[in-house]
Design a protein that fits this description.
globular; 56% helix
Length: 325
């Protein structure tokens, strides 16, 4: 039997719930402000990545691989989360300052993703699970190719960094803007500097850290945790486990989609102050369990998503156009 996405005619659930949450808990609006301390985390984590790369400049490749998986993946993933907050202008005031901080995060990752992520992530929020606009959804051919066997699913997740580059090609009206070009030039230059100071092994550590941090790794399981359907009818899932401590609370995903103007440091407060909206929702407690369940349960595959069919010629949300301008 041929599988396919679960198509719904229901609207994105988050705007309506956000209105209900704020109607009952208006005090949460006090959390709608940037968190400048995140900028110090950006600088510190990038410095850590470069320092480890320098220490590995003469290391053998098994040590480089081990360090990238056991240390660098956690640091690179943390930088991804800080790029995420910069995308929502939640680190400092002003769009261009947050853009620069996002690009700085990329220095510790070796790959120029911050500006393209900004564009397509904002589309993900405003056009959640709409096949024509949300690059978080797999291509239909991608889902058919991967299937539901553990080996192909493992290889797919291992290569998810490459998948993330290809996915936006589905968006028929891709955005292109000078910040993206600047992002590429800046990271190409810093990669050359890392190669010069830290050698091929050091640069490989930085790049492999990113490859592992969003790939076949417990932290990489969050790409499955966030929107893959584990309970029929529920579109978004939070994770409340210990890895939030090294991932800047990115697991609080329902809370984030509901109140996108709350920075990472305050997301647990949203759940604590409005438990009646979140305690009844299915949530994950272990990303390792999510990873193993997704790999070995044949009922779970890339089609295990709720989607909305929408004409690709439909207008993009005005707020998104303004944000990526």
């Amino acid at each position: 039997m041929r599988r396919g996405f679960v198509v719904t005619d229901q609207p994105n659930p988050h705007p309506a719930r956000a209105r209900e949450v704020l109607g009952r808990h208006p005090e949460l609006r006090r959390l709608f402000r940037p968190y400048p301390a995140s900028a110090a985390w950006v600088v510190g984590l990038v410095a850590l990545q470069v320092a480890v790369a320098f220490l590995l400049r003469d290391a053998r490749w098994p040590w480089v691989l081990a360090a990238a998986y056991l240390i660098g993946a956690f640091v690179s993933h943390a930088l991804f989360v800080l790029i995420h907050d910069a995308t929502h202008n939640l680190i400092v005031r002003g769009s261009w300052r947050n853009r620069l901080l996002g690009i700085l995060c990329n220095v510790g990752q070796g790959f120029p993703s911050a500006m393209s992520f900004r564009t397509y992530h904002l589309l993900h929020h405003s056009h959640l699970d709409e096949y024509a606009f949300d690059a978080d959804l797999a291509f239909r051919w991608e889902a058919r190719l991967v299937g539901n066997g553990p080996v192909r699913k493992a290889l797919w997740l291992l290569c998810f960094a490459i998948v993330e580059i290809v996915r936006p090609l589905r968006i028929r009206r891709p955005f292109a803007e000078p910040w993206m070009a600047g992002n590429v030039v800046a990271i190409a230059a810093t990669d050359l500097l890392v190669w010069y100071w830290c050698g091929p092994a050091g640069l490989a550590y930085v790049l492999l850290s990113t490859f592992f941090g969003i790939g076949l790794h417990p932290l990489g399981a969050r790409w499955i945790q966030e929107h893959y359907t584990f309970v029929p009818g529920q579109e978004t899932y939070s994770y409340y486990g210990i890895l939030n401590r090294v991932a800047f609370n990115i697991g609080y995903h329902n809370e984030h989609h509901d109140l996108v103007r709350v920075p990472w440091v305050h997301l647990p407060k949203v759940k604590a102050l409005a438990p009646e909206f979140y305690d009844h929702l299915h949530a994950h407690r272990s990303l390792t369990r999510v990873l193993l369940q997704w790999l070995f349960d044949p009922r779970l595959d890339l089609y295990t998503r709720i989607t909305r069919e929408r004409d690709a010629a439909a207008p993009v949300t005005r707020e998104v156009r303004a944000a990526v301008a």
